[in-house]
Amino acid sequence: MKQTLLLAGMLLPLSLLAQDIPFQIKGQIAGPEEPSKAYLYYRKGAENITDSSELTGGAFQFKGAIPSAVRGTLVIRPIPVPGKAMAMRQDMLSLYLEKGDIVVKGDKGLSDAIVKGGKLNEDFSRYQNALKFTKPQYEAVNKEYADAAPDVRKSEEFQKGRNAKYEAIRKEEKAAQLAFIKANTKSPIALDALQAYAGSLPDNIDELETLYKSFAPAVQKGASGEAFAKTLTGWKATAIGAQAPEFTQNDTEGKPVKLADFRGKYTLIDFWASWCGPCRAENPHVVAAYDKYKSKNFTVLGVSLDQPNAKDKWLKAIADDKLTWTQVSDLKFWDNEVARLYGIRGIPQNFLIDPQGKIIARNLRGDALEKKLAEVL
C-alpha cells in the first residue's frame, strides 16, 4: 500500500506538468459598421485550431488551453447577410496565447489595437514598435503602384524602381530586426525576429547559426527553437553545390518514389500546394519549361504540401493545372517530411539538381527557370 501511494505521489507532478496552459482573451474594439464575428487561429501541436466569438458592442472573448505558448491571429470579419454582397474588409492582429488573461483594446479597430498580458506579448509589442517605421513606407510604395496607369505598371522601368524601393525598405527593416535580436537573446520573440530576418531561403546561413547560438538555452530548447535548428540543418543541406538530400515519398497512387530514381536527368524539385495561390500562378511557367525541355534530359518532381484529408483537392489541382510530371505528397501540410528536410518555410519554392544529384540553382521563378535550363542544357 505504501509503495502504491509513493508511486502515485511521484506521478502526480508529472501529470500536472503535462497539463495544457489555460489562456483567456478579452477584447474590446470600436464597434464595426456591420454585424461581425471574431475568429482566433492558432496551432495546437500539429493541429490547426479555428475558434470564433460573437461580437457584441465591439466586445469578444476566447478561452482555451495549449501545450505551450504559441502565436495566434485574431481576425474580425463581417457576417454574411442573405441577398447582400459580403464586405471584403477584415481586421487582423497577431498576439501570443500564454497563461493568464490577455486584454485587447482598440479605439479604431483590431489592427491598431493594444495587447496587454504576459511577458511574450510585452516583448512582441516592443518588436512590433521597432518595425513600425516601415509600415508607412510600404504603404507609400503600394499606393504609388495603385495610382499608376496600367501601361505604366507594366513598364520595366517602373517595376525596377518599385523593386528597388522595396529592397531599400527591407534593408532598413532587417537592420531593425538584427538590432532587436542581439538585444533580446533571452526572449522567444527574438527567435521570431530571427526567422523574419532570415526569410524563406537565405544565403547567410553562417550568420543565422551564430545568432541562433547566441540565444539563451531555454529559447534554443523550446519547441520553436528546436524546429528552427532543424530548418537551419535543412538550409545547410540545400545550399547551391550541395548534394540534394535523398528522400522517398508516395505518389498520387500511393506508390513510393525515390529522388534517386531521377539520377541521370536535370530535375526540378518543385514544392507547391493546391491551396497556395502564388504556386498556382507559377505553375504555367513550370509547365512551359517542362514542355520545352522534357525531351532534353529535363524533368520535374512535384512535392505537395497539401493538407490531411485533402487528396481530392491535390488531384484536382494537378489535373486543372496540367501538371503531367511525377507528384508526391504525404498530405501533412507544413509538416511534410520532405519540406522539413529541405528547410521549406514558404512556397512556391524549387531546387534544380543536375544528373549527379547536385543542387545547381534554387528559387527559379517565372522566366528564370527557362533561362537557367537554356544555360545548362
Secondary-structure blueprint:
Elements: H1 2-18, E1 21-29, E2 36-44, E3 47-54, E4 59-66, E5 70-78, E6 91-97, E7 100-106, E8 114-116, H2 119-131, H3 134-147, H4 150-154, H5 156-183, H6 188-198, H7 205-213, H8 217-221, H9 223-237, E9 248-250, E10 256-258, E11 266-272, H10 277-293, E12 298-304, H11 311-320, E13 326-328, H12 337-341, E14 349-353, E15 359-362, H13 367-376
Parallel strand pairs: 1-7, 11-12, 12-13
Antiparallel strand pairs: 1-4, 2-3, 2-5, 5-6, 7-8, 9-10, 11-14, 14-15
Helix pairs in contact: 2-6, 3-5, 5-6, 7-9, 10-13
Can you tell me about this structure?
Helices cover 42% and strands 24% of the residues. With 377 residues, it is of the alpha+beta class. The chain folds into 3 domains: 20-115, Immunoglobulin-like (Sandwich), CATH 2.60.40; 134-237, no CATH class; 248-376, Glutaredoxin. The longest helix is centred in the middle third of the chain and has 28 residues, at 156-183. It starts with a helix and ends with a helix. The model is unreliable at 1-17 (pLDDT under 50).
Summarize the structure.
The protein has 377 residues and is of the alpha+beta class.
Distance between the termini: 78 Å
Which CATH top level class of the largest domain fits?
Alpha Beta
Per CATH, the superfamily of the largest domain is: Glutaredoxin
Please tell me what the overall shape is: globular
Number of domains: 3
Coarse structural class: alpha+beta
Beta-strand percentage range = 15-25%
- Specify the biggest β-sheet: 5 strands, mixed
Query: Rg to the nearest angstrom?
Result: 24 Å
Task: Detail the poorly predicted runs.
Answer: 1-17
Note the run of SSEs as H and E: HEEEEEEEEHHHHHHHHEEEHEHEHEEH
- Counted beta strands: 15
Question: Going across the major beta sheet, what is the strand order?
Answer: 13-12-11-14-15
| CATH architecture verdict of the largest domain | 3-Layer(aba) Sandwich
Kindly identify the CATH topology of the largest domain. Glutaredoxin
Q: How confident is the prediction overall: mean pLDDT?
A: 89
